[in-house]
Automatic annotation (TrEMBL):
This is Uncharacterized protein. The keyword Transmembrane helix applies. It comes from bacterium (Candidatus Ratteibacteria) CG01_land_8_20_14_3_00_40_19. It comes from the Bacteria. The chain crosses the membrane at residues 6-29, 36-55, 61-81.
């Protein structure tokens, strides 16, 4: 997956409390099935739930920033998404 290090660095900068969770979710998804769409969506939902609970005072600007990072990751990995559809 392209851009994982950059996205991880951005999360570390924007929401340092969530960085251990991001590492845990990343390695969990990589071990269980990196091309599994339901597993990826579950990891994203877990991330956003923790984001809202750990940063209740600023989640309104963190959520769009993280969605932007996810969008960039999707654009950078279009070939992987096409492979997931098969």
């Amino acid at each position: 997956m392209k851009g994982v290090a950059i996205s991880g660095g951005a999360v570390l900068y924007l929401a340092p409390k969530l960085f251990p969770l991001v590492l845990l979710l990343y390695f969990f998804v990589q071990r269980k099935g990196p091309r599994s769409a339901p597993l990826l969506l579950l990891a994203i939902v877990v991330f956003f739930v923790f984001l809202i609970f750990l940063y209740p005072h600023c989640y309104l600007w963190l959520v769009p920033a993280v969605l932007f990072l996810i969008g960039i990751g999707v654009l950078a990995n279009v070939s992987a998404l096409k492979e997931m559809r098969r």
